[in-house]
Amino acid sequence: MQKVIAVRNNKTVYRDGDKVIKVFNEEFSKANILNEALNQARVEETDLNVPRILEVAKIDGKWAIFLDYIEGKTLETLMKEHPEKEDEYINLFVDLQMTVHKQKAPLLTKLKDKMNRKICEAELDATTRYDMHIRLEGMPKHSKVCHGDFNPSNIIITPEGKPYIIDWAHVTQGNASADVARSYLLFKLAKKDELAEKYLNLFCQKTETSKKYVQQWMPIVASSQLVKGKKEEKEFLMQWINVVDYE
pTM (2 decimals)? Predict the structure, then answer.
């Protein structure tokens, strides 16, 4: 094994030649690892540029997923290196997300099922939880591919300018506006408030979606994000959850 690319709480990502190896900690659920590999395989069957899954194996007793290595820089890195191109990059970001939402993968988990499960597990009082379940049930059902963690660090641009979308662990099929609400909250959590607004306005403009409609998803998405149990995020997310209605 060669270079460490990324270290997360529960996994380490290595590059080994033309392969990427995601090695999970022993306590990580085997079912979740196999589900992530299955999700990736399902997405490979769409028209999107994604790294191919090569194999799932054990390394020194730890589960690992082997994928194609994609040469290039993340969109996040490019945005930091070329702040003058922010508008161009955020346009590309929105176009890519729209391309994701045009795909169908009928065997993926349904977004509403996953969100209901996460709301059940969130640290919320019973009344708020009930309210979120009712809100979620009232939202229109769709079957679009939703990445679930669509942010500039999960897009790699090759030296030839070809974009690849990575990290499909949270993919579901459902309502695209829920996916947009999550991307918006991820920008806000990263303290990129201006970029968050620019992104949301651009997405709504390009897709002719009402901004208020996307905002209706935000308390629901914030509730499901609480499951991660990050103390530094809780106060911010609770502010979104406690917003009753948007003007």
Answer: 0.93
Please tell me whether residue 191 adopts helix, strand or coil conformation: coil
Eight-state DSSP code of residue 51: P
Report yes or no: 151 and 117 within 8 Å, Cβ to Cβ: no
Nearest to 246 by CA among 208, 219, 224: 219
**Model pLDDT for residues 7-28, shown as the tens digit of each residue:** 988 899 999 999 999 999 998 9
The string of DSSP letters for 226-239 reads GGG--HHHHHHHHH
State pLDDT tens for residues 117-170: 999 999 899 999 999 999 999 999 999 999 999 999 999 999 999 999 999 999
Residue for token pair 């529960």 = 10
CA distance 115 to 221: 8
Determine the Cα–Cα distance for residues 147 and 242; give it in Å rounded to an integer.
26
Residue with tokens 């690849």: 164
Joined tokens for residue 245: 């209605």
Structure tokens at 168: 């499909």
Count of CB atoms situated within 10 Å of the CB of 21: 21
CA distance 211 to 204: 6
Amino acid at 4: V
Cβ-contact 153, 165 below 8 angstroms? no
- Reduced to 3 states, what is the DSSP secondary structure of residue 78? helix
